[in-house]
Amino acid sequence: MRHPVIVAMALAGTIALAGCQKPGDTEVKRALDSVNVIDESNLNDIMLTVADPNEAVTYFRRASTANPERLDLQRGLGRSLVRARRTAEAASVFATIVKHPDAGNEDRVDYADALIRSGEWKRAAAQLDKVPPTHETFKRYRLEAMIADSEKDWKRADSFYETAVGLTTKPAGVLNNWGYSKLTRGQYDSAEKLFVQAITYDESLFTAKNNLVLARGAQGKYQLPVIPMTQTEQAQLLHTLALSAIKKGDVATGKTLLEEAIHTHPQHFEAAVRSLRTLEKT
Q1: Which PROSITE patterns match (predicted)?
Q2: Alpha helices, DSSP H only, in 98-187?
Q3: Is the residue at 257 inside a domain?
Q4: 13-64, pLDDT tens digit by residue?
């Protein structure tokens, strides 16, 4: 029963002794600094992932202003601005970062990403041209594919998309982009297959589901595909399919699909109701 008291006294003596020794002070400070670095690193990660994007911007702006020599904090500011969809500001931050002597290839890729999001395609391409071919990352090739798409260089786009897919364990987004690229080229069958692949990797990706229906509608396939979907999603996809049919001149089919969408939706489906009323007036 007396052991805890003895241990507590021994610890107290150790702490008191450490307080009298200068080397001990240095070691304790070093240990505390180490803990602070770990805590800050964890906080930075949280701010860049799950925190509110605008709160993250405020955090990194304050931190980078207080520590202007810290390149990691400037990177955090740029990436948090991208998350907050303040892409022009993000591009400005990365423009400063890439001029730093310690900047790396990934900083230039991040800069290109911010430029693309701001609609600065040519400037983004110029930045990626400065990245050596040995820097083979998923993000780099995804951006290269998007730029090739914007230039309608389909052969390069397909090559970059294929490489990007092979460099990630979560390819749903890039498969959806690739499928949309095929859709815009009129290659509907290829687009359909890519959208199905995207949904296989991420069943919650509604954009890919909607694009899949567009690809099927363009081929005159007016049945919903067998994919995971909620009742609300089913109604929305039926609406998309109806509009595709109407656009192709299959008005009767479109009307039937609109009625089905209205009856399927668990609530009032205003968009489908409005489309049906417009169709009935013509």
Answers
A1: PROKAR_LIPOPROTEIN
A2: 105-117, 121-129, 138-150, 154-166, 172-184
A3: yes
A4: 433 334 444 445 555 445 444 445 446 668 888 888 888 999 999 999 999 9
